[in-house]
Amino acid sequence: MSAVVPELPAFLRDLLASDVAFLVLFLVFVLEGAMLLYIAPSELLVPGALILIGEEYLIPILAVAVAGATVGQFALFLVAKYGGREYLASRSWFRIDDSKLDRFDGWFERWGPLVVPASNAMLFTRGMLTVPAGFAEMSSRQFLVLSAAGTLVFESVLAALYVFGGRVLG
Question: The VTT domain covers which part of the protein (predicted)?
Answer without folding.
Answer: 43-155
